[in-house]
Every structure is written in C-alpha cells, then in structure tokens.
Amino acid sequence: MGEVSLPARPQIAERQRRGAHPKPRLSAPPVRDNRDTVVEFRGVSKLYGPGGIGLELATFAVRRQEMVFLVGPTGSGKSTIMRLLIKELNPTDGRIRVAGRDLSDIERKKVPYYRRNVGVVFQDFKLLPTRTVYDNIAYALQVTGAPRKQIRATLPDILRLTGLSTKLHNYPHQLSGGEQQRVAVARAFASHPPLLLADEPTGNLDPETSIGIMQLLYRINRAGTTVIVASHDNEMVDRMRRRVIELKRGRIVRDEASGLYGAREENTDELGERLKRETS
Ligand SMILES: Nc1ncnc2c1ncn2[C@@H]1O[C@H](COP(=O)(O)OP(=O)(O)O)[C@@H](O)[C@H]1O
Ligand SMILES: [Mg+2]
C-alpha cells in the first residue's frame, strides 16, 4: 500500500541515476520519513528480572496505515511489544516512539491520556460482563471524556461497521465468542485511534469466526488506522499477505514486506472470500 507510493530511498535513486539496478528488497526498509512513522522501536530490550528476556535489541518502524503482523511461538515477545506500546511496561533499554513522541517522556499521570490514542484488543475480549453491548462501547467513549450526545450520535456507525446493530441490548454472555470479539474491536476503535493493537485476537475463535475478525481489522486498517496484530496462527497470517515481523526468544528474526505490494489491493469482501476459499 504505502510502500509503492513512497519516494525511492536516496541511495537507490542514486544507483538508478547511475544506471545500476537496485538489489531486490527482501526485508522492510528503515523508515526515513518521520512524518509517516507511527511506531518506532530502536534497540529496545525488556528484561523481566534475571534471565527473563522479553525482548532483545528490537529495531523496527511501522508507517501510517500499515497493517503488520507479529508472529512467533509462545514466549517469543509479541505481548511484550504490545505492553511496551501501551506503556504498561517500560523498556530496560532502547527508545520507543509513537507518533513522534518518546514514550519515556510521558509522565505516569499522563499515561491514561496517551492510551486514548491506542485501541487494544485482547485474546480474551475483556468485556464488562454486567453491561450491554451498547454500554460496553459507550463506556469506552465516556472515559475519553466524550459528551453523551456525541456518544449517541457516533455509536450507530460503530455498531454497523462491526456488524453488531442487532445486538446492542445483549449482554456479553448472550453472545458467541466471535460476537464478543466484535464488541471488543468496536470498543477499541470507537474513538477512532490512529493506532490499533490486537494481541492474539483470534486465539479463542474457530477458523471461520477468525476470518470475520481479520476482515474487520482489515476494514479498520483500510479506513486509515495503523493496525498491529500479534498471532501465532501462521497460516492465517500468510493468507493476509501483509508485512510480517517474526520473533524468536525476544529477537526479531524476520521482517518481511508482503508479496502483495504493487498488486491491486483487495477490498474487505474480496479478502473475506479469498480467506474462506483458502481456509477450507
Ligand atoms: N511478567 C513476566 N515476568 C517474567 N517473565 C515474563 C513476564 N512476562 C513475559 N515474560 C517472559 O518474556 C518472554 C516473552 O513473553 P511474551 O511477550 O508474553 O511472549 P508471547 O506474547 O510471544 O507469547 C517469555 O519468555 C516470558 O516468559
Ligand atoms: Mg502473548
């Protein structure tokens, strides 16, 4: 997506002027245009006590409107990256910037304000069990200080986008797992944050329901939000044809742009149809 429209990197442009062909690019390029960078990790390590390595010297950047998958086995550091991004953890070493802001500059009491810009979806949904679908989403907007009137005005759109229009009066226990996860996505996206994180969002769902959730995240991404998804479902991730960052024991071992760059972009329905075909 953004990849093809970015200006050529200076040294490549230089080589092209000299008539040499640039080498084929196997991994994602370093980001040079800071205005386009939403997330930047530079030499980030997180040690949990002696011997407990969460992340080791991770360097990567995510551009505006990218959809990126973090993959790797359990314990490889995916959730550590997510928790660092919402400043639930602080790095032992290195620097993390989100939208140009160094997270270490954010005072503890300002962290809740920072988090309003980052939507988060978890594997186990984390809905409020005693509130309806409507109230679960409304509550998320309320805590950002949105006035009631505005919440009433924006909620129908979010319910429609997430396919929950007929479920607004239901409580979480009256919903399927897939529907509960839709509520969680709706809640994370309600305030239209520029960055959305999803940590194993399909970990508790069957393959068909997982496709629906992936489609929803893809739709949100296409509407302009940067999306980072952690998953250990490698087959699903491959089928998504997006950038993949692979972790092993806290280290980035692969950072690969998708093979789709340059090809025509799929719309959300086309993606869903293809995922269904390729999953059966
Ligand atoms: N609270 C913690 N205390 C000690 N070690 C932890 C803690 N959280 C994670 N770790 C360790 O950090 C590594 C990465 O964990 P995590 O980021 O949760 O991996 P993933 O999400 O890929 O399964 C693992 O080895 C894990 O045991
Ligand atoms: Mg995890």
Supply the CATH architecture of the largest domain.
3-Layer(aba) Sandwich
Q: What is the string of SSEs from the N terminus onward?
A: HHEEEHEEHEHHHEHEHEEH
In this entry the ligands are:
adenosine-5'-diphosphate, magnesium ion
Distance between the terminal alpha carbons, to the nearest Å? 28 Å
Gyration radius over CA: 19 Å
User: Which descriptor suits the 3D outline?
Assistant: globular
**CATH level 1 name of the largest domain:** Alpha Beta
Tell me the CATH topology of the largest domain.
Rossmann fold
Unreliable stretches covering 5 or more consecutive residues: 1-26
Mean pLDDT: 88
Quaternary structure of the protein: single chain
CATH superfamily membership of the largest domain = P-loop containing nucleotide triphosphate hydrolases
Helicity level, as a percent range?
A: 25-40%
What is the count of distinct domains? 2
Quote the beta fraction: 15-25%
Describe it.
This protein has 280 residues and is of the alpha/beta class. It has two domains: 36-117 and 193-280, Rossmann fold (3-Layer(aba) Sandwich), CATH 3.40.50; 127-192, no CATH class. It is built from ten helices and ten strands. The strands form two sheets. A six-stranded mixed beta sheet has the order 6-7-8-3-9-10, sandwiched between helices. α5 (133-142) crosses α6 (148-161) and α7 (177-189) packs parallel to α8. The longest helix has 16 residues, at 207-222. It is globular, with a radius of gyration of 19 Å. Mean pLDDT is 88; it is low at 1-26. Bound molecules: adenosine-5'-diphosphate and magnesium ion (MG). Magnesium ion binds next to α3.
